[in-house]
Amino acid sequence: xxxxxxxxxxxxxxxADLLRVANAPGFERWRExxxxxxGCSDPIHLSGTTVTRDRATGDVLYSYSTADEPGGxxxxxxGNRRASRCPSCAWTYAGDTxxxxxAGITGDERKSVxxxxxxxxxxxxxxxxxxxxxxxxxxxxxxxxxxxxxxENSPLLGTALDPAxxxxxxxxxxxxxxxxxxxxxxxxxxxxxxxxxxxTQAALKESCRVSFGKVAEFQKRxxxxxxxxxxxxxxxxxxxxxxxxxxxGLLDDAIRAAAARVAVTVPxxxxxxxxxxxxxxxxxxxPIGALGQEELTEQxxxxxxxxxxxxxxxxxxxxxxxxxxxxELARLDVPDHTRRLIEACWTLDxxxxxxxxxxxxxxxxxxxxxxxxxxAYSTTLGALRQTRADYRAAQERRERGLPDxxxxxxxxxxxxxxxxxxxxxxxxxxxxxxxxxxxxxTNRELVREIRAELExxxxxxx
Length: 462
Prior knowledge:
By secondary structure, the chain is an alpha+beta fold. The protein has helices at about 1-5, 10-20, 25-35, 85-105, 170-175, 180-195, 200-205, 250-260, 300-310, 335-350, 380-400, 425-460, and strands spanning about 45-55, 60-65, 75, 120-125, 210-220, 225-235, 265, 275, 285, 370-375, 410-425. The chain contains 12 helices and 11 strands.
């Protein structure tokens, strides 16, 4: 108990609440509920009933009510993708993103992507923002412009060398229009591919399709950039073979050319002049290796994308919730560089009312999706979630002795009524839920390590 008290800090109320929860009559059932959410840190509370009847006879085959649950509530996972909000649900989201991205690289018949995509031209591209002014960094020479050799975890990294001359307005406007820049890039990319293949854009649609899966990431300086797996398929997607002219070299060249062409004009507003937003000059394109034939492996790419799918702008020191008014900034513990970016959003909001800069000031102006993909790249996150839900539903039917709806030809009827009853945990419950989440994650990682060792041993035998 001493260890528990230490981890809870010096808050006697939290410790008292922990003892209350652990000694409550329904504790074991509460713990089972939380375990089934994966240790969610902010579960949704529901109250209600569900009844399964035989459609022909009207007999009740199964009934459930939250009246018998602890507190009269059922707890379900919040599903938040942000690790800063819910590490457990973010871990699940990252896993789904990993499988989605990896399926588009290696193929997975269970996800409707043939293994032949490994023979298609595939690259991992990174598009960055331009410079808005010099910042503290760790160059190859080891010494920053300020004359100091910063350690890797220095809080100065990414902050402006001279805040008075740094273009904070340009930085947040660039973040705000990053989605438009990506959209223009995909349009120009198809044009550049067609030009290099010596065909028209109409002919390109009949012979080749460009597929991608991307994720956004915030740099320490507060500028967004995109990582994307870009793949060339045949005209009908991953099931079809790309044309003979399609190659990694052609795709690499087309990506760089398309990025250089993109320009989004922001009209003048108030005292702010017209701006032309472009991608930064640092465009990185790397081929993705099959079976480790290249330095950048398929698994490494999927893991990298999944890692950043659960992060937002928190890496810059900002908050993960909306800021209601500028006065809130005085109460927020954020770095000066980040504070200036947030202030720029509020300052520009009146001049660019349609851009909702103040609403997205906690995201430093960025208002796009962090993870997106083209339609034919691979499966969808929704499909992955549905597969998981169907699997759990089948498990519950077997446990309750209920017929499979696919085999019973609609012989059962489910009547359910649910209402929202709140969310979250008490202080003691939060500690217990975090402990459960850690145990679940540790067990899963142990299983993965064992599987990896077994696979390595089998490969060694061959």
